[in-house]
Amino acid sequence: MKGYQQALRFAFRMAISCVLALGIGIYADDHLHTSPLFLIGLLVYAMIGNLYLLVKECGKDE
Which UniProt keywords are given for this protein, alphabetically ordered (predicted)? Predict the structure, then answer.
């Protein structure tokens, strides 16, 4: 059951952070007139940060 909870927590964390990154990126690009610069940058940052947290969390269990 613990693995299921970890996977669910990771999925929700990834979804929420990506949606926030998309929203903030679109807003920033709209106001600063930069095409997809902030959108792509924040999305990549959110994904890498979540993968780092996943690896850190999985390493703690072993």
Answer: Membrane, Transmembrane, Transmembrane helix
One-letter amino acid identity for 27?
A: Y
Amino acid type, 34: T
Q: Which residues contact 34 (CB under 8 A, 6 or more apart)?
A: 28
Neighbour tally for 37: CB within 10 Å:
13
What tokens were used for 24? 């903030």
List pLDDT tens digits, range 13-39.
999 999 999 999 999 999 999 989 999
What is the per-residue pLDDT across 47-58, written as a single tens digit (0 to 9) for each? 999 999 888 888
Angle, helix 37-61 to helix 2-32, in steps of 10 degrees: 160
**What predicted TM-score, i.e. pTM, was given to this entire model?**
0.81
Question: Residue 17 in contact with residue 46, Cβ under 8 Å?
Answer: yes
